[in-house]
Design goal:
The chain is built from four helices and no strands. The protein has helices at about 10-20, 30-40, 45-60, 65-100. The radius of gyration is 24 Å and the shape is rod-shaped.
Length: about 100
């Protein structure tokens, strides 16, 4: 189940876009981020995280993209389910072997 955030995707996109648009007006990306965050009434750290994630997704910064992260989580979930099913099959197989031995 996806986590529901406090801010809509539209607000996130707008905030990240504002940081990119106003970078040349401030001495650093952090100063820009703090200004935009204050203007929008959000935490500068929250906005910084969104900006970093956007940079990774666009290939500007190295790291695992959102799509890759989502795919890994899906594969981990599937792997866990398969391991559980495998344990059930092993237990059933052992019980059948015991019953067969009694015959």
């Amino acid at each position: 189940m996806a986590k529901v955030g406090r801010y809509s995707p539209e607000i996130r996109e707008r905030a990240v876009r504002m940081v990119a648009e106003h970078l040349n007006e401030y001495p650093s990306q952090w100063a820009t981020t703090m200004s935009v965050a204050q203007e929008l009434g959000m935490s500068a750290e929250t906005l910084r995280t969104w900006v970093r994630r956007s940079e990774v997704d666009l290939g500007i910064r190295s790291g695992i993209t959102t799509d890759e992260r989502t795919r890994v989580k899906e594969l981990e979930r599937e792997n866990s389910e398969l391991r559980r099913a495998n344990e059930i099959f092993k237990a059933a197989s052992n019980k059948l072997a015991i019953l067969a031995a009694r015959w």
